[in-house]
Each structure stands twice: as structure tokens, then as C-alpha cells.
Sequence to fold (763 residues):
Amino acid sequence: MFFDLSSFVPPPVNPSLPESSLSMNWFPPNKVIIQGINNYQATVCAVQTKAYGTDIIAGVSPGHGGTTVEDIPVFDLVEQVQTAMGKVDISLIFVDSFQVLDAAQEAIAAGIRQIIIFTPRVPPQDTIALIKCAQETNTLILGPGSHGIVIPQQVWLGNLQPQFYQPGIVGLISSSRHLGYEVAAELNAAQIGQSMIVSVGNDRILGSDLAHWLATLNEDPNTKAIVAIGQRVNQIKSIIAYSKNHGYDKPIVVYLAGLKAPQAKVYRDAFTIISNHLSASIPVVNRDRQTVTELRKIGIKTAKKPSEIPLIIQKALASSF
Amino acid sequence: MELLEYQAKELFRMVGIPVLPSLTIQDARKIKQLQIPYPVVLKSQVRSGGRGKAGGVRFVANTIDAIAAARSIFNLSILGEYPEVVLAEAHYNTERELFLAIVLDYDLRCPVLLGSAWGGMNIDSLLANLQQVAVTEEFSLFYARRLAAAMGLSGSLICSVSEIIAKMYRLFKEQDLDLIEINPLGVNHQGELMALDGRIKINDHALARQPIMETLNFSAQQRANSHHNTRQTSQDFSQVNWRWLDWHHPTGKLAMICNSFDSALLTWDLLEQNKVTPACSALIENTLTTDLAMEIDNLQLYREQIQNILQEIASFSGVKVIMLNIWDTAAVHREIIQTIVDYCQAEVAVLSPPEQILVNQVQVTTADGINHGNSAIALGESREVEKPPAISVPEFSVPRPYFVLRLVNQGDIDDLPSSPQVYLSSSLEESVKQAIAMVKSS
Fold:
């Protein structure tokens, strides 16, 4: 059966377009705080990143002000950290999913303009509200569900394991942690290494998506080629939109892992969500193949497995010089 | 969490969406307390749709009929679910039935109002006439009027239906809903509206801040589902956990064990690209710790958890190869190798006298895979002849699986015992190749 969607009016501004967020540029931070530091994962992250040399100046955990976690002073409020220790560059957020919006808004209100949300599965209405707030204040949001950012041997923010990376020329943007490790291992073996690794998270709505970081890495002088790793085809739609609107001058490789794995279906648009809710037997049109074809058409290379990635990059770099 | 009809209607009542007078009963005899005049509708309170067709909705004209009907509804399972509650509701004469819903559109990143002038059970005509209005800015009543007009409504219905939508929107925002639906919204001959059935889904990850959770009585099934959904996010202090992924293939010959969901995704993908569909996949997750004292406990726990997984895999017939893809510390990798080799050797020891172990030490090549399988079966037979049944362990009568261990960062493992049953590599694609060869030769 054919359903007429012509009556459907799209909103005037699509906030997922990277233009709106381009001004929120990443800069390597000095002073770092962790919100939700009493959470076990946050404590582990604090200990490890601090040992690596990241300047974790304080933690925030309401009700635990005045205590310490692994020698890191803990405050009740973000603004108390600012008063006591000066300006904070970035906040790493580990609070429970339903507290993320509040924690991030607190950080923004205190003037912090870079935020990484490690907590996954944030209620989607909260993420939407947060993105709106971030756009109004020019705040960069990475996540929800991010594992952080690494610049090999320079910057370590989060719970990616830096020993799996080597300094080099490839910018790596990934929806998840281990897929990034696998690709990095292949790049290390080919001795081209990584300039920067960004884990954007895997929630249905993200503060900054693969395309946002594609734009950032396209500007980064240390990055000569870019690899975007996703788990689902819809994640690369923003890459197609970005490439059509902006063009790019570095080789881009897209690797989609898990296309053949029996992942649970994720419905995104209102019509599909409601028709699936009414009756599970209504077939959903699968446009994955079309999207992948479209990607190839605009000249972005796709890899079938991690070992192909360094080969594609070496070939592309050789032909551009 | 998906609410049952009567729970959804409690929320409707809270914001002033009209619902029929009703009584919820947990016992068929309680229906005698009913204050509503007959005829009455009795509805099974289960989550699954299609309860009408399954016999979960009954019209009754008097108390005697009602008790009998309620009894049969309590004893009727719909898609495996028995109701804990039956809703008894007044009858309503409708002239037409509308459909209204609000969901979040992840592509547009805003709530979308949906409506169809063809509400009710016929899903095809409902969807064919479905209208949508995206709420791109702060909600205002005109969005709802826009939907009502698109649905083809006219006269006083434009305003009265819009009011209902506004109330639904209030619930959607305040209660962190993923979905709210009224189907059907009954319209009687006077143009009055009545929410005759409704469905509500609360976002699982916002449940903790919803006070409504305290007032609704959730069924055991709802609690179990909600627990299942939220379990993954809970901040668990225990160090090593494992669970099955919901991926099964009954004729698969390979079982996977990975330490993250995305690793499992990748490994499955690479196997599937080579036409090998795994039988199942387990996830073993280790919350990393830098504390050395805790790490020793962790290793012991890791060993036990791997043993638990292997024990469960042993109960799946047809699994010939077990592939592990684990990224962890060198210490954990050592523990895994030790555990697997012990596992192989322990079984050999139970299986057969020592001289026959040598028979089983076949070369680890593809060609010998077939021989290996045969020799293991042969050993199993000889055990039954030679050993008294008291010593034999039934699980070990099946041929033992072949292991492919993909461990990055192996560290120094030269001192560890090796086993011909175990292939070890730090390369994912080499490991996958080996696993595929083993599956195809078995």
C-alpha cells in the first residue's frame, strides 16, 4: 500500500544540519571537571586520565562537596569550582541519564562551552532541549554515550584506552569505542596512525554527529585523511548532506560495521514509529542500499572490513600528491 | 515502559481527557461491586494488541454473565500473557471513531502530532488517512487545530479535538513519554468525545524521576520488562558481568563471546560476509579498574564467568567452534587462555585415559578438522565402554568445540600451556578466517 505523505510539512530549520553548529569549534582544553565523579565509571575515568596527565581540577557531585575522590576535590556546584579554581574549559558528564540535561545546563550556565556526555540513552526530549540550549550559547556537546576524545600522546579525555592508538595522520570518528580500536589497530599496522579519535556516541539524537566532526577534522592541519565509523546506515546520512553542501578536500572513508548483524531495528520518523506500534506486520521500507549507493556516487569510499581502510587511504593519498 | 489501558486512562483522567466510568477488578467475583449500569464491556488488561480478536473484550448484559465472562478473560492468555486486571467499563455509542497520537520524530528532532479520521481497528485505512503536524517550536493550540483541519474535521470538532490533543501534549512533555495514543476517540451523535482506548509509553530512562511511578500499580510483566530495559544502564559495581545477546540462529555452528556490543556487531558482520551465521553471541563486560588488589579478584571472577558461558554453550547442540574476541588487559588475556586450555584439558581427562588424549592431539589444520571431530566421537564411545557410568559426565559426550581466541595485547604468554584445540591470534581477520575454515570443515 502506498501512503501519501504530501500533507506532511517539514520544519523550517533542520537542526541536524552542520551549518548551525559549525561555529562550535573544538579546542584542546586545559582545565577539566567531572560532573558525577562519585559514579564508579567516572572515578575510574578520573584516575586513568589524570595518570595520563590530563588536568582534572575538580569533581562535582551534589551532596559530596568538601570531600575528595582519588585526591580530586569535590564540589556541590559547578560555579563553586569556578570560584575556587578559576575558569573551567570542559566538563565530562557521568550522571544518570535522567540527570544529564540538568547537569549540562548547570555547566553551560557556569560558562563552560565544551561538554562531553558519557552517559548513554538520555531521554530524547532532554537531548533536544539540550541541543537547543547549546546552540543558543555556542556550546559544543559531544555525546550522549560518547567515550571521549584522544589525540595520541597529547590529549586524553574519557575512557578510550590510549595504548591502542599511535600518533599519525588519520582522523577517526566513531559511533562506538571498540570499532575505533579495531580500525586504529589496522592503521597502526600500516604505520599511518591517528591524528585524533572522537567517539560521538550511539544515541538516536546526538549533540554533534559524524558530519560535525568531519567538518572539524577537515579543518585540522594534522589530519590528512578521515575515517567515519558507524553501526547504522542512517548515521551516514548527515555525511552525505555535509559533503554535498560543503565539499571536502581530504580523503574520506566510511566504514559501516554491523550491516549484516541482526541488530534491533531502530525507527526514526513519526510515521514509521506509529505504524510499527499499531501493527508489527507492516513492512518497513529499507533504504539502506540506496543510502550506501548515494554515498559512493558523491565519491566517498566505503570499506567492507577494517583491513581495507589503510589500503584505501594510502591509495587516495598517493594519487593526491 | 508501556502502560496498560487502565493505567493510561488514569493519566488521561488526570489531565481532563474524558474517559468512561469504570472499575478495575483482580478477581472475577469482585464484579458484583460494579456501580455502572449494564450493558458493560469487560477488557483484558494485557500489553499486546489484537486482544479484541483473541477474545479479550466481552460485552455483558447482567451480573451473572459478567462473572462468567470475567472468569474466562482471566484464564485467557493473549500472546502468552495472562491479565492481572480486568477493566469493566460502561458502554458508549459512537457515531464515528478518530485516531490521535503524539510521538517524537528523531529525524526532525521534535514531537509530531498524528491524526486519522479513520480511527479504530482497521489499520490500513487508518494509516492511509494519517495526517502529521510537526511541533517545531513551543507548543501552541494552533498546531492541534492544524492537525484537526488536515484530518478533515469541521465545525465544533475542530476545537474540541484540538483541546484533547493539547492535553495529550501536556502528558507527553510532563511524563517523559515516548508515545501517547488514543484509538479510538469516540464521537457520539451529540459531538461529544470519549477516549475509548489508549496507549502510553514512558521513556525507560526517565522513569526514575517520574512520581507517577509510585501511584500506578504495575504488573509483574511490566516490571520485568522495565527491569530488562534499564538493566543495561544501571551503574553496577560488580566487576565482570555477562549476558546473551538476543541474536540466535538455530543451525549455526559457531558461538561468539565478545566483550562489547560493537565488537560483537563487527565479528558477526565479518562472519556473515563469509556466509557463516553464528548460533549465538555472549557479551562479557569488565568494568576496568586500576586497583591491583581488585584486579586479582576480577581475574577469578572473569574465569568463573567464562566457565559459566562455556557451560551454557555446551548445552547448544551443533556448536563446533567458539570464537572469542576480547580487548582487555594482558592479565585478563592470560586468564582467558588459561581458562580455555584448562577447559579443554579437563574435558579430555574426564573423557578418556591419558594415552587416548594423544590420539586426540590432531594437527590444527583445516584438513584435520574432520578427523578431529571423528576422533572426539570415537573417544566418547570408548569412554562409555571402558568407564563405569558413575564417573562419566553426560555433558562431555558431545565432541568438544574448537576455540578461536582473538586477543589483542597478549603480553608474555610463552609460559602458558597450549592446546591443539585452541587457535590464538591478535589479528581479527586472521581469527575470523580460521573460525570460518573450522566451521566449514566440521
Q: What stands out?
A: Chain B has 14 helices and 16 strands. The first helix of chain B runs from residue 5 to 15. The two ends of chain B are 44 Å apart (CA to CA). The first strand of chain B starts at residue 22 and ends at 25.
